[in-house]
Amino acid sequence: MTCRLACRGPSRRDFLAFGMLGAVQAGFPAAGYATFAAGRETIAPRAGILVFLRGGPSHLDTFDPKPDAPAEYRGEFSTIATNVAGLRLCEHLPRLAQCADKFAVLRGVSHTFAAHSLGSEYLYTGSRPLASLKHPTYGAVMARERPPDQPIPAHVALPKAEYGAGFLGSRFGALETGGLPVAGRDMPLRGLALPNAIPLKEFRRRHELLDKLDRRFAAIEQVHPAVAALDQYARQAMEVISAPRTREAFRLSQESPAFARLFGDDAWGAACLLALRLVEAGVRFVTLSLGGWDTHANNFPALKDSLLPRLDQALSGLLTGLSERGLLAATAVLVTGEFGRTPKINGNSRPGRDHYPKCMALLMAGGRVRGGQVVGASDDTGSEPAAVTYSPADVAATFYANMGISPDTVYQTPSGRPITLVRDGSVIRQLFA
After folding, report:
1. Count of domains forming the chain
2. What is the pLDDT of residue 12?
3. Strand 285-290 with 175-176, pairing
4. For residue 47, what are the β-bridge partners?
5. Interval 224-250: pLDDT, tens
6. Staple 413 to which of 47, 102, 167, 421, CB 3.0 to 4.6 Å?
7. Residue 211, exposed/middle/buried by CB under 10 A (0-12, 13-18, 19+)?
């Protein structure tokens, strides 16, 4: 279960709680976590950010260009040097090129799911999709293993959670914003703000009355876990509303103009700035879903005129901003889509590239990831991994390890079935070298 900021679901408490029942979904149960040491002691990052490029970006036109390939593979773009010797990116990523020392490129990632839904589920969870079992997303696992030490959401999804908490249960679902923020403006907090300027003292009085009602419904909650979960969200709503850090994180207008300029003036940049402010406030995980990458047709104009400049500004702002605020070493970042796109350009009247899970590239940064390097490779046309093949499970094992969560963690489903967090993946240790 996920819940938007504007959640207004009718309930026995709405007339008192002003529609805030279920407005906050955060994981608060205590749980230990394993710190990935890789042979030496280290402090695990306190937060994670997933930037999901929905639709599947072309690896050849972003992070794995092939300037020497035949034209029908190479495409229309040239490459650009970065601030890392020997590393070149697409020419339309100049800002990322100048902060390439802050991220690592992982090439030669491959899987077999060419459908958007299945490929996305695989990359959101690190587990192969199954009809019989829904695996938790990165954010849900982080909410369970690293609950916040203050009254704030554990996992925030911008604009929504594409996939839920799976067998971990709805209490570890994401708080959804329902939309992307507007640059320079405070993001509305209809589900978290006090409605109609009600004083906090009055709200607390009403909350005490709700607690009395809670006791009347205790027997129902014991029988129905979903009802109990909703009550947990409502109880946390009071604490979240009372915490200034939660409200302040969404007030983008309070950010210094000089810092905000790093992110540009569109919604993608504002979303990346908000993600930074949320982890700075103590949120454990932020999922950013940035769409538009399904370029079956009109691939090159769409990338050149819109998609790449927007990504370049927003993502470079996020990485540079995290570094300037001293947060990059404490925040694991993964940038990926659900698959790559066909190396050979299709024959459409407006040429494009189609779904291609056999080969893709992604970025990892923050925490113990050593920036300024390329791990893995694809062949001369970007058609398949050149030597070592990395799976989404390997990516997941590495991302979890970088967040201080052991990929070997074993959970039990509600039916009692033991499930390993990452069953078939291994940590890509070169990324930490």
Report:
1. 1
2. 34
3. unpaired
4. 331
5. 555 555 555 555 555 556 667 778 899
6. 167
7. exposed
Per-residue pLDDT reduced to its tens digit, 112-150: 999 999 999 999 999 999 999 999 999 999 999 999 988
Distance CA 218, CA 205 (A): 21
| CA neighbor of 338 nearest in space, from 50, 124, 49, 56 | 56
Query: Distance between CA atoms of 366 and 45, rounded to whole angstroms?
Result: 8
Which of 184, 381, 364 has the alpha carbon at shortest distance from 267? 184
E strands of 192-344, at which residues? 285-290, 331-336, 340-341
The CATH number that applies at residue 401 is: 3.40.720.10
Could you give the angle at the alpha carbon of 212 between the alpha carbons of 210 and 213, nearest 5°? 65
Residue 280 is encoded by which pair of tokens? 């700075």
Burial class (CB in 10 A: 0-12, 13-18, 19+), 116: middle
Residues of the domain holding 283: 31-189+250-432
* C-alpha span between 217 and 200 (Å, rounded): 25
Confirm whether pTM is higher than 0.90: no
CA dist 215 and 236 (Å) reads 16
Q: Render 189-230 in DSSP notation, one character per residue.
A: -TTTSPGGG--HHHHHHHHHHHHHHHHHTHHHHHH-HHHHHH
Residues 133/139/141/142 CA torsion (nearest 10 deg) = 180
